[in-house]
Design a protein that fits this description.
43% of the residues lie in helices and 16% in strands. The chain is of the alpha+beta class and 274 residues long. A hairpin with a 2-residue loop joins strand 6 and strand 7. The longest helix is centred in the last third of the chain and has 19 residues.
């Protein structure tokens, strides 16, 4: 896998927050933890973009702490957060877990479920929500759910195949054909498609498109370009129209509109790495 891993991001979570804390957990199934307080007035309506990942989102209100587990959406959708509320989140790397308690990863695509019922540990959800600091919430999650936060020492052959597939796709920033995966991993097309779908709920082509989009979003967020034409050229989109169409499908807005928004909110300065 490329060293420049594209950690899945949800930029509208950041834009709709008063503050946004983030901590990476390298070598773990967890891409990163995040915590934020939503604004009093949320203006951004399309709050979730495809990332191929699964998020566990804790709503930390004092009256009714709760948590949901949310699969990746397949196109840009509306905001899922309440105004002026506190949240703690866990974003997983795509394809790392086939099951979450009683839920299968493939059943989560485009859906949310009650995390405490799936994992049968409502006391842990309440404990994490009631923790005062971001660090305490992280420690509470790692302690309460080691089966999610720790890399398994026992990996079956199917899990290894999924890791190899996602590794190749991330290394190529989504620009890889299934025929190339067949050659590199020495598995049949049918076998690769079946195993990946079982673990992630997505087909490989769609996941490649999402990773390529996430790479483009990351470049824009970090300002790693001179003009937007550089972004679609680096992403190997066919042309500018192809880039515009795919970006609008996944972000529900044009690249130009998105760039204006992140510049206005000083996106990178809004994130505090812990």
């Amino acid at each position: 896998m490329s060293e420049n891993i594209i950690y899945p991001v949800q930029p509208f979570f950041v834009m709709d927050s008063e503050y946004y804390y983030k901590r990476f957990l390298p070598g773990s199934p967890i891409a990163h933890f995040y915590g934020f307080n939503s604004k009093e007035h949320i203006e951004i309506k399309n709050g979730v973009i495809p990332d191929g990942s699964v998020d566990i989102i804790f709503s930390c209100g004092k009256d009714s702490p709760q948590a949901v587990i949310a699969g990746s959406v397949e196109s840009g959708t509306r905001n899922i957060f309440k105004e002026n509320a506190s949240y703690f989140g866990v974003r997983l790397m795509p394809g790392v877990l086939k099951h979450f308690g009683e839920a299968a990863a493939r059943d989560l695509v485009g859906h949310t479920m009650d995390f405490s019922k799936i994992m049968k540990n409502p006391a842990a959800v309440e404990k994490i929500c009631e923790a005062e600091t971001f660090e305490e919430k992280i420690n509470g999650f790692i302690t309460s759910f080691p089966e999610i936060s720790q890399k398994s020492s026992v990996i079956n052959s199917y899990e290894e195949i999924v890791r190899e597939i996602t590794g190749e796709i991330y290394g190529a920033e989504g620009n890889i054909k299934i025929s190339e995966l067949e050659k590199r991993l020495v598995y049949s097309r049918r076998h690769l498609l079946r195993v990946f779908k079982e673990f992630t709920g997505m087909d490989i082509k769609k996941f490649c498109r999402i990773v390529r989009f996430q790479a483009a979003i990351s470049r824009i967020n970090k300002g790693n370009f001179i003009a937007l034409t550089d972004v679609f050229l680096d992403g190997n989109y066919y042309d500018q129209n192809h880039f515009q169409k795919e970006f609008k499908e996944f972000a529900a807005m044009t690249p130009g509109t998105y760039l204006k928004m992140i510049n206005e909110c000083h996106y990178m300065n809004h994130i505090t790495l812990i």
